[in-house]
Amino acid sequence: MALTLADIKARPREEVTFTIECSGNTGLPFFNGGIGNARWAGTPLAPILKEAGVLDSGIEVVFWGTDEGEIKRADEVTFKQNFARSMSLADAMDPKNILCYEMNGTSLPADNGFPLRLIAPGWYGIANAKWLKRIEVRDQRFESRFMGRDYVTVREEDHNGETVWAETSVGRARLKSAPARVTHIGSDYRIVGAAWGAPIDRVEVKIDDGPWMPATVDGTEEAEFAWKMWSLDWPKPSAGEHTVTSRAIDKSGNIQPAMSDPWIAKKHTYWESNGQVTRRIQVS
Ligand SMILES: Nc1nc2c(c(=O)[nH]1)N[C@H]1C(S)=C(S)[C@@H](COP(=O)(O)O)O[C@H]1N2
Ligand SMILES: [Mo]
């Protein structure tokens, strides 16, 4: 099935506000800004797959981008390949996935995937393939640099006392928050930040080694996949360096893990890092 951009734009339109986080956004000082929120518009993917006629043997959907690079595998096999990411057929058929041609009310910018990208709400950045040129259904699990070599999380897991090392392809977004900035008017300081990755119940903030304090979470934005902004007043901090750490708690009661939590500490690659983010603040 071949579709022009005009064909795709003529199909039913769907919008979603979705915060995309790069799975490499560690929260460590060298990379903590790899995230952004936008209003994306496009047409649902599932009806197109259905119209194309997926065979019973189809299990995996591959999204190919126009960007390409040289691949050199550990076994020395070398070749040129376009960017490619895949999803199981069940994940791809999620009615929330859209083939997106608009960002914040304007044509998708070149950097963000013009003419067309996948928007897969609830997934880390890498799943949201940009510059799409082909979508195909295959009857085998698909491996590529961006499925099976890069964007692979290596985690040491405890299974009833036995250590199991698991290598998994980066998947769905995880519960996370971060302090974004500290503002002040005179001596009245305020910490503002964001929380995302799961339905947010509340956010708590710790200054230096003090107790966790409840932040005020902005209740106006009800979009399921959009980050929530939060703030905490910080009256009259003493001069000098302080640390500010936040943790999000989701509606099921899960708490964003500390960096020392085994979930983070026993993860040996930097992908999918949803540990608590600590920022350093200089008050003068
Ligand atoms: N074709 C293609 N799609 C891609 C990528 C890429 O390199 N090529 N990078 C991915 C990664 S790692 C991220 S974090 C997001 C970034 O999306 P943005 O540029 O709209 O923020 O795009 C994803 N889609
Ligand atoms: Mo990324």
Automatic annotation (TrEMBL):
Keywords: Metal-binding, Molybdenum, Oxidoreductase
SUPFAM superfamilies, per database record: E set domains, Oxidoreductase molybdopterin-binding domain
Keyword 4Fe-4S: no
A Pfam family that the UniProt record links to this protein: Mo-co_dimer
Reported cofactor(s): Mo-molybdopterin
Domain Moybdenum cofactor oxidoreductase dimerisation: 184-260
Top-level division of the source organism's lineage: Bacteria
Residue span(s) of domain Oxidoreductase molybdopterin-binding: 2-144
Biological process terms in GO annotation: sulfur compound metabolic process
Gene3D superfamilies: 2.60.40.650, Oxidoreductase, molybdopterin-binding domain
Keyword Oxidoreductase attached: yes
CDD domains per record: SO_family_Moco_dimer (cd02110)
One GO MF term attached to the UniProt entry: molybdopterin cofactor binding
Record-given protein name: DMSO/TMAO reductase YedYZ molybdopterin-dependent catalytic subunit
Organism: Mesorhizobium sangaii
